[in-house]
Amino acid sequence: MFWYGWCGLLMLFLSDHDVERMLDMKDVIEAVEEGFKLLAMGKVKAPLRSRVSSERYNGDILSMPCLIEDFKIYTNKIVSVYPENVGRGIPTIHAVIIVADAVKGVPVALIEARYLTALRTGAASAVATKYLSRKDSKVLAVIGCGYQARTQTIGVCEVRNIQKIVAYDVIVEKAVKYGEEIREKIGVEVEVTDSAKKAIEEADIIVTATTSREPVVKREWIKPGTHINAIGAYTPEMRELDTETIIDSKVVVDNMEAALSEAGDIIIPIKEGRYSKDKIHGELGEILLGVKPGRTTSEEITIFKSVGLAVQDNAATYALLKKYARELQV
Ligand SMILES: NC(=O)c1ccc[n+]([C@@H]2O[C@H](COP(=O)([O-])OP(=O)(O)OC[C@H]3O[C@@H](n4cnc5c(N)ncnc54)[C@H](O)[C@@H]3O)[C@@H](O)[C@H]2O)c1
């Protein structure tokens, strides 16, 4: 953590390490829930993110601006997603957030945001899980055991009393390492399986956090009453859920416009002519405000389809800067 001069101004720099030390999941869940409520009230200014793709290097770079006047900050996150980095032994996702004071427009901070992105994504799933999953959910299936899987798990375990986790990854070593870390961090038992089917058949809650382009979840494997957080697919060509799962479930999206332009999980079934946008139940913020109901029966299958929104970054940044200001006072 340090300050440095830029255009004659002093700016705060916070590294991933600082974020990890200062912020915990509880803080971010609270901030992200508030952010989604403000979004549903029309109090968040965030145009659809822009994505530039490098076909040559197989990567995407996204720019995600957001102004929340109630939080008094403007944030813009630059985030890259390079799936082939797994083979290079470096992270798939890298990110930084530039923060400006919304009152005067002055840039105030630069935040390394790889960990913050994982936290806010886990927090959004936690909020969705709180409102959409059965309260007696005990078994969590995690499909795709990379970086996001850790904070997805911590988020879900923050809001539900999970007794067992069943994990699957195409690279078995990744699932094993994830299991060891989760056991150590939150003390929940993790069983590694050799198929997504085995993990899903047992689950009350499913998290999909893969870079897959083909469905990793099939409808016939899912028990009645299951809740799914599908967070991996973020382009029209990517998907993690098969069409039957979408058709048979109550689908809640983070944002309608973003889901209809980025979420292959929804766009592909629409293109197939088997689903339509009016079948989407609503946005997470609408559920939080009580404008639309969440889960209404113990039998229904619910889905939170998240592509990731700038409002989550802004809200998590707000929580971080509040923590930082508190640290300065002691
Ligand atoms: N919704 C959001 O807000 C949000 C936020 C951050 C990342 N993401 C997306 O989540 C995905 C995962 O991100 P990450 O940082 O964890 O990446 P990661 O590379 O660290 O992890 C992905 C894991 O999925 C596994 N995998 C790939 N295909 C699979 C399959 N068919 N079945 C089982 N496992 C499979 C990989 O082996 C890897 O372990 C990316 O697509 C990323 O863009 C979404």
Provide key terms for this protein.
single chain; 330 residues; alpha/beta; ornithine cyclodeaminase, domain 1; Rossmann fold; 2 domains; eight-stranded parallel beta sheet; seven-stranded mixed beta sheet; 12 helices; binds nicotinamide-adenine-dinucleotide
Provide a quick synopsis of the model.
With 330 residues, the protein is an alpha/beta fold. The chain is 38% helix and 25% strand.
Q: What is the terminal-to-terminal distance?
A: 16 Å
- The percentage of residues in β strands lies in 15-25%
Structural class: alpha/beta
CATH topology of the largest domain, by name, is: Rossmann fold
Globally, the shape reads globular
Q: N-to-C SSE series? A: EEHHEEEHEEHEHEHEHEEHEHHEHEH
The major sheet is characterized as:
8 strands, parallel
Q: According to CATH, what is the class of the largest domain? A: Alpha Beta
Order of strands across the main sheet: 10-9-8-11-12-15-13-14
Number of separate helices:
12
**Model regions low in confidence, pLDDT < 50 over at least 5 residues:** none
The distinct bound ligands, ions and cofactors come out as: nicotinamide-adenine-dinucleotide
Radius of gyration: 19 Å
Structure overview:
There is one protein chain. The protein has helices at residues 16-22, 25-40, 85-88, 114-132, 147-159, 172-186, 196-202, 243-247, 256-262, 264-271, 284-288, 310-329, and strands at residues 2-6, 9-14, 50-54, 59-68, 73-81, 93-101, 107-112, 139-143, 164-168, 189-192, 205-208, 227-230, 250-253, 282-283, 302-305. It is of the alpha/beta class and 330 residues long. A hairpin with a 2-residue loop joins strand 1 and strand 2. The protein folds into two domains: 2-116 and 311-329, ornithine cyclodeaminase, domain 1, CATH 3.30.1780.10; 133-308, NAD(P)-binding Rossmann-like Domain (Rossmann fold), CATH 3.40.50.720. Helix 4 packs parallel to helix 5 and helix 4 packs across helix 12 (310-329). The strands form two sheets. An eight-stranded parallel β-sheet has the order 10-9-8-11-12-15-13-14, with helices on both faces. The structure holds nicotinamide-adenine-dinucleotide.
